[in-house]
Amino acid sequence: MKPLAGLITINWNASIDKIGGRIGVVAIARDHNGELIGAMSTIDKTRYQELTTAKAIGAWLTADFSRRLGFTKIIVEGDSLEVVQGLRKEDQCWNRYEVLINDTKAVLLSFPSWEISHVKRGANTAAHILAQYALQLGRRKSGKR
Q1: Is the distance from CB of 57 to CB of 46 less than 8 angstroms?
Q2: A Pfam family name for this chain (predicted)?
Q3: How distant, in Å, are the alpha carbons of 6, 16, 104 from that of 79?
């Protein structure tokens, strides 16, 4: 279903390099016509070795990226059901990555309009491939078109 005019859809994903102790995170922002309007990739050293935690970090980085680019109405899509469910909860989240979820919610609540949506891995292919590529690239990049 095509988003309404003015809505920005941001797909995010994360990848882990357990040997190097790094995560790669990518966010891809598209307008209501599906046109690319911004993207972010980053790698970070981390002690976390669990993919769900990496995706929770990715959700926070995506929310922050969206805020910095001045988006106001966003739909954030990711393939981690656990992270999406944590962000949807009305009350605070209490699990092993609670601080990340709660901090992400705080950023999302600063937007006039936001939604969080779970998508199947196949619908998140571009972000998945780019998150793995970010680890190979080894640099931070972000920008708005």
Answers
A1: yes
A2: RVT_3
A3: 23, 15, 16
Strand-pair partners of 25 = 14, 42
Place of tokens 């600063």: 110
Distance CA 130, CA 98 (A): 26
**Contacts with 79 (C-beta within 8 Å, 6 or more apart), sequence order:** 13, 55, 118, 119, 120, 121, 123, 124, 128
pLDDT tens figures, 43-85: 888 776 788 999 999 999 999 999 999 999 999 999 999 999 9
Amino acid making up residue 45: K
Map out the domains of the chain as residue ranges.
8-144
Can you tell me the distance from the alpha carbon of 145 to that of 142, in angstroms, rounded to the nearest whole number?
10
**Using only C-alpha atoms, what is the Rg of the chain?**
14
pLDDT band at residue 11 under the 50/70/90 scheme: very high
- C-alpha distances in angstroms, 97 versus 42, 56, 70, 104, 121? 20, 7, 27, 11, 21
In this structure, what token pair is assigned to residue 138? 């080894």
